[in-house]
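Students often ask why we bother encoding 3D structure as a string. The short answer is that it lets us treat folding as translation between two languages. Here is a chain of 147 residues written in the first language.
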Amino acid sequence: MKSIEDIEQEIKDEFNRLPDVDTKYAYLFQVSERLPAMDLSLKNDQNKVVGCHSDLWFHLSSTEGKYHLSADSDSMVIKGIAALLVRLIEGRSAAEIQRINLDFIDETGIWKLPSERNNGLLAMLEHIQSQVNQADDHKIVKVEDPT
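And here it is in the second language, the structure alphabet:
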């Protein structure tokens, strides 16, 4: 599996090959359209990202300690950013997800929205990392009785 840093670099390279911001947004919209549809039952208050101006849902699930992120938004831009996060998170451990930051987004040249939208980026990452923390808090550790 590629490292998070390698995937971030791939994403930066994909966007930085494009000639201008309009082409970058068009590509981001294509990325958003490739995001698998999210089950409607997962679009609930628990999965809704608070602090994002658009409606955005993230659902994090895990199998054998490896996480999978489902996402959807009513905004093509936000959905595209969410799709990039899905790409980063797929198959990662809780520890890896906790180390993710969104600095690579700045290097793509796509995030030229008003400053209050930057809070939305932070809200996305905080929501995902909070879900990872909650999942870890609910793990039951089985301790063998030494007697």
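Translate back mentally: The helical segments are 4-16, 21-33, 76-89, 94-98, 103-106, 115-137. Keep this in mind for the problem set.
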